[in-house]
Amino acid sequence: MTDVTEEKVKRKANNDLIRFVTFNVNGVRTFFHYHPFSQMRSSLKEVFNYFDADIISFQELKTDVLSISKWGKIDGFYSFISIPKVKKGYSGVGCWIRMLPENHPYHNAMKIIKAEEGITGLLSVKSSRSKVRYRDDKQLGLGGYDNLGITDEERLLKLDSEGRCVMVELACNLIVISVYSPANSGLTEEGESFRMDFIKVLFNRIRNFNKMGKKIAFMGDINICRDLIDSADCLNNANINLNTNNTGSIVEEKYHNDSVVFILNPQTPHRRLLNQLLSDCIIPELAEEGILIDSTRQIQGRDRLKMYTVWNTLKNTRPSNYGSRIDLILITDDIKDHIKDSDILANVMGSDHCPVYTDISLKSLSREVTLGDYKIPRFEARYRYNLQNHNVLSMFAKRSKTTPNTISESDSSSKGSSQSTTPTSSFPSHNTSKNVAANRTKSIDKFFKVTKVQSARTKSSMPNSKEDSGITLHTTKISRNEEGFKPMKDVFGKPPLCNHGDQCILKTSRTTENPGKKFWACDKPRGEPNDPNASCGYFEWV
């Protein structure tokens, strides 16, 4: 994979470019467990500064209302967050826009004009004292609600029930669309129907924006591989087809360096719809309808292979770079010449996906912006989730330093918050919290009290345990042979050697045909067939 250092994350120019970053974080809390984010004290502001980003889209936040105060009050950024209405701790999309200083050339251009949750315009936002649907108020909604392909409102509302999209309109006439598209991982008819409905409505909305004269930045986890070279599985299947002289839906394209790459002719419905949206599609009849271009391919070229952005963690395919590219930043075709840099950051950990960035000059969008009585949209997280006057996490008061072991998880997670607020009198007082914590500690000690029986061998290794702690452990050394345990080789036999000449590992089948049945397999992760560091495919039932 491409060597990506912290220095490369920095953009080539500062004031002249705006950086877009998309990242499926697979849980906004858990990615802070990985370097370099583990050193950032759960601060999204530090994460955004690390990427040197101005417009950021995160997908699969997997957060809830109680935690949004941590992710929705980021000093120096506007925050727009959508979470599921039905499935808690699932999906979720966030879009953050940097508040540029007044002396920045794009200070006015980056102002937020409107912001909207969802793709249908049927969701509501609080306006004055009542709730209003976006499509019913021109001052709130972005427009483009006609001819979406579906008229049933119940069916449309279902598409917006999982927190999958955020749309933000900037003063420079650019609409930023942050999306986490459905994948239908379960391969069900219902899942595929939902997926196709979502894609059709969203793509029709994008086309409507284009007809309105808007520029578009469509970014996120699209969950569609546009070409064969964007999927390791598809490439392998294509090699099989080519070896049997059955090219099927594979077409050939030659590049300036005389290399030949086989590209998938997009006949699957979701792939076809995506390619119809792209003016840089290699299928001429599909490209005619396209209005967006793939910014990463624009810079990296159409002949760069293995530019994957997601890998299968269960099969550990990231080390061998056997994955797919489904995280994209698509930009309106007529500003493609203003894309100055774009790439994947494959070595940045923290998720089963990796970040993607694109640097764009907004000079092409520069215009006289008259903001008038500028107001931040009501969908901004501080208003949408009522974060202006207090922090939800502040009700969990910090414990006294004399009881360090009783600090709650809420206290530790609030350290990285960019802003804090003193709790009101209605919240629990510090002394009350300390008493509760002390009682809880006593209860825990009592619960884990152990019978005072100890073997002579344990006493000799812990001579002061009885006097110092008042707790005596009962330990008994159990002989594995006495209990009927046997070494693995006596039960399953000696591990065979795979085609690499290495010992195989023992695995358990999880298929419906052979549930729980043991088998030997190569220890290396799945990868390209000719890769010596990838699995040789050895398989043998025990």
TrEMBL record:
SUPFAM superfamilies: DNase I-like
Positions bearing the site annotation: Transition state stabilizer: N223
Similarity field: Belongs to the DNA repair enzymes AP/ExoA family.
GO molecular function annotation: DNA-(apurinic or apyrimidinic site) endonuclease activity; double-stranded DNA 3'-5' DNA exonuclease activity; phosphoric diester hydrolase activity; zinc ion binding
Residue positions of the active site: Y180, D221, H353
PROSITE patterns: AP_NUCLEASE_F1_4, ZF_GRF
InterPro entries: AP_endonuc_1 (IPR004808), Endo/exonu/phosph_ase_sf (IPR036691), Endo/exonuclease/phosphatase (IPR005135), Znf_GRF (IPR010666)
Cofactor binding: number and manner: Probably binds two magnesium or manganese ions per subunit.
A GO CC term assigned to this protein in UniProt: nucleus
Cofactors named for this entry: Mg(2+); Mn(2+)
Keyword hit for rRNA-binding: no
Residues carrying the site annotation Important for catalytic activity: D327
Entry protein name: DNA-(apurinic or apyrimidinic site) endonuclease 2
Biased composition (Low complexity): 406-433
All copies of domain GRF-type, residue ranges: 498-542
Single Gene Ontology BP annotation: base-excision repair
Positions bound to Mg(2+): N24, E60, D221, N223, D352, H353
Region (Disordered): 396-438
Site (Interaction with DNA substrate): H353
Origin species: Maudiozyma exigua
